Design the sequence.
């Protein structure tokens, strides 16, 4: 660990992800950037997650374990992780995703050299076995709030500077809570900057919460109307945009 490395807090919500969480944890702890703390927030898993994490903690002091009082969802888990995060930088990773080994190092350099406070990266998609699906998700180098309303970034790619922007907490919404968080963060930073390199892998799992794109549409509506307080016309337009985008993506896979 370099003496001038700022602490990075990594938030990992989890629920019954024993099949994949070992790979996710390994990808975090093996980062070339070593000054980290990994805050794993367990949403009352029933698959032995707690005992497994206890073994990890006994080997690596950088891992912290928290458990919700009851099964509460990812939004509550993310908020709990943010609450106890001590780092200047806060990063996020889902417990079935994996990072490239130099992800943090490259992204922190990208942020500090350019004085960026809110960043993401490109990512690729993998299947349940970890095979590359040859699908790279790219993002513009610089976006504003209006662009983010139409185009979410990859949750496991995001880092923001909590020292500059403050800690950001989100309302308890079952789905699209990560998206809601980014909309809150960009209001503080005004811009989201993308490091144009694939540094994270997002695992595609049939039946997962994020796999049904059309089911997510109603949560987009809630984000726009209930939380972002957008007017009726703009909310309809944005929901229509997401529906059209989902249809185009579905057709392109055929």
Sequence:
């Amino acid at each position: 660990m370099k003496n001038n490395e700022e602490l990075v807090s990594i938030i990992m919500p989890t629920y019954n992800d024993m099949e994949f969480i070992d790979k996710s944890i390994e990808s975090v702890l093996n980062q070339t950037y070593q000054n980290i703390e990994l805050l794993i927030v367990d949403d009352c898993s029933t698959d032995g997650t707690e005992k497994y994490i206890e073994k990890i903690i006994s080997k690596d002091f950088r891992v912290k374990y928290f458990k919700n009082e009851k099964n509460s969802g990812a939004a509550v888990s993310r908020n709990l992780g943010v609450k106890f995060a001590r780092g200047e930088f806060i990063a996020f990773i889902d417990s079935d995703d994996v990072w490239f080994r130099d992800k943090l190092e490259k992204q922190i350099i990208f942020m500090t050299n350019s004085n960026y406070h809110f960043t993401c990266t490109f990512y690729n998609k993998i299947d349940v076995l970890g095979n590359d699906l040859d699908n790279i998700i790219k993002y513009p180098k610089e976006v504003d709030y209006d662009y983010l309303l139409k185009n979410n970034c990859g949750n496991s790619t995001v880092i923001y500077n909590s020292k500059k922007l403050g800690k950001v907490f989100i309302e308890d919404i079952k789905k699209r809570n990560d998206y809601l968080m980014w909309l809150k963060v960009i209001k503080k930073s005004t811009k989201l900057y993308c490091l144009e390199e694939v540094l994270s892998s997002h695992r595609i799992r049939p039946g997962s919460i994020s796999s049904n794109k059309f089911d997510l549409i109603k949560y987009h509506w809630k984000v726009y109307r209930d939380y972002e307080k957008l007017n009726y016309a703009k909310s309809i337009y944005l929901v229509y945009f997401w529906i059209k985008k989902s249809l185009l993506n579905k057709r392109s896979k055929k």
Observations:
- The first strand starts at residue 8 and ends at 14.
- The beta strands are 8-14, 36-42, 63-67, 89-92, 98-99, 118-126, 132-137, 142-143, 159-161, 192-203.
- Residues 212-254 form one domain.
